[in-house]
Specification:
It is a single chain. Helices cover 22% and strands 22% of the residues. It has helices spanning 3-14, 37-43, 61-69, 133-144, 165-172, 218-223; strands spanning 23-24, 29-30, 50-55, 73-78, 82-86, 96-101, 123-130, 150-155, 158-164, 177-182. The strands form three sheets. The protein has a four-stranded antiparallel β-sheet with strand order 4-5-3-6, with helices on one face. A four-stranded antiparallel β-sheet has the order 8-9-7-10. Strand 4 and strand 5 form a beta hairpin.
């Protein structure tokens, strides 16, 4: 599949309908039962063994067992009722609606600039994810053979790459690649409190209320024998509110 087909596929699926039984990807939503001849011709240019199977009923364990019995690897679930699989070719599965060849363009984050003739030689740093550790090993061997691709970091199933857009498109067409996105930018918080720690004086007026346990009357619970031992506790943090640093 070349760049021209990539762009046509992207535009085609952005205008897809919003009916029942849709396939909902991060990049676009479409109805697999209403595919035009244009989609068939585009699919014929796609190589690889990644497919989406849509179903007319909820996906049960019985259906999954049938899929695996035919030597098909299930990669992940896709809403509303579809599975991303790895198979040599389509076969008949109970309650199936359609088989759709998984397009490389669907793996690209919506925020990531699409490759084109104008930008195919420009370099970009991206992060991509594979489906498994074994896929990461296979992809690593393929990347080693690409002279203009630089692996900046690898951690488990994730890779950070620097490559031109043309090569990135080729990489995204590999069956091992699940998703490609721009490298997230992380910024550290640099607080300037306006005083020196050298001026701080040790304090001796510790009351026990500093941790909040006395305010919530934990002492009475502990005295009654409730220590919280062997209990599973879940914590959720909404983040840090910077507030007004001028006050």
């Amino acid at each position: 599949m070349d760049f021209r087909a990539f762009l046509i596929a992207s535009l085609f699926f952005l205008s897809a309908s919003s009916q029942a039984g849709l396939i909902r990807l991060r990049t676009q939503t479409f109805d697999p039962t209403h595919m035009s001849s244009e989609m068939v011709s585009l699919n014929s240019e796609v190589t690889g063994n990644s497919w989406i199977i849509s179903f007319s009923s909820p996906i049960t364990e019985k259906i999954k067992k049938e899929i695996r019995s035919k030597g098909i690897e299930i990669l992940q679930f896709i809403p509303d009722s579809a599975l991303l699989v790895r198979a040599d070719k389509p076969v008949t599965i109970s309650h199936q609606e359609a088989w759709v060849h998984y397009q490389p363009s669907w793996k690209w984050s919506p925020e990531l600039e699409s490759p084109s003739i104008m930008n195919q030689n420009s370099f970009k740093v991206v992060m991509l994810r594979t489906y498994s550790a074994s896929d990461a090993e296979k992809l690593s061997l393929k990347l080693d053979k690409m002279d203009r691709v630089f692996v900046l970091n690898q951690d488990g199933d994730y890779f950070v790459l620097r490559a031109n857009m043309k090569d990135l498109f080729q990489i995204s067409s590999q069956d091992e690649v699940a998703y490609v996105e721009s490298l997230p930018e992380f910024k550290t918080m640099d607080f300037k409190m306006g005083f020196s720690t050298e001026d701080a004086q040790p304090t001796t007026d510790i009351t026990g209320y500093e941790t909040g346990t006395k305010v919530m009357n934990f002492d009475s619970a502990w005295a009654a024998g409730y220590k919280g031992a062997d209990q599973i506790v879940t914590m959720a943090d909404t983040g840090l509110d910077l507030g007004d640093l001028t006050n």
